[in-house]
Amino acid sequence: MTKFNGGVWALKVLLYAILTLYAIITLIPFVWALCASFKPLSEIVSAEPSFLPKNFTFDNYKQIFVQEPLFLRWLFNSVIIAVSVTVLNLLFNSMAGYALARLRFRGRNFWFLLILAVLAVPAQITLIPTFLILKLFGWLNSYQGMIVPSMVNATFIFMMRQFFVNFPKELEEAAAIDGLTPFGIFWRIVLPLAKPALAAQAVFVFMGSWNNFLLPVVILFDPEMFTLPLGLNSFKGQYISYWNYIMAASMVFTLPALAIYAFFNRYFIQNVTFTGGKG
After folding, report:
1. Rounded to whole angstroms, how far apart are CA atoms 177 and 189?
2. What is the average pLDDT value for the chain, to the nearest integer?
């Protein structure tokens, strides 16, 4: 027994050592980018690179916030689009998932199989059809052109459907006895208890929309409508890339994603606990 406990302890130490090493390797590029955001360009491109800044400066942040007239507009565009896409996905994906899991209607299996088929289609293939449809509607270079094509996601419809399939029916039956309509059951009983699934969905959808580059580069052509990923590309000139400004803007770009993850992280480690079911 002692040898067994010693072996388990040694395995845990080895596992934590590997995870710690992996975490350090993963963090090094981020820490370097953070340090580089406080360096002048000459120091970043110097033949003698340094990890920590030798000439610490806030000029890079001053440049992007004060002297770059469109940076705050790009940040505003990204926030509006990412928040709208996230909220609409949480609502529509959850409603579709609940309908496929609980409601009985003609063609339910067909729609479920169609959603599974959509999962097999790479997003890049849909870029040209999306462009042509948005052009037909006159939605190019607009907020609705960025939001509407992304307001539902087949992956998260499937995820929510699987979550609701395992939801205890006793809670819904008790709510129905109390007089709630199917929509009332979904809105007042089911959705509040789906916080872990909604939190996971919110993080992935927000980060996907926040980091999206392909769709904006296809449908946005007015610099005032650019999102941050597209706007950062403008700091690259024909002969020189302003890495000091890119690093500073990247840090500002990273903060909202970190904040979203930090806010919803507690739901990731929280077990889904249902009350009111049969013992």
Report:
1. 13
2. 86
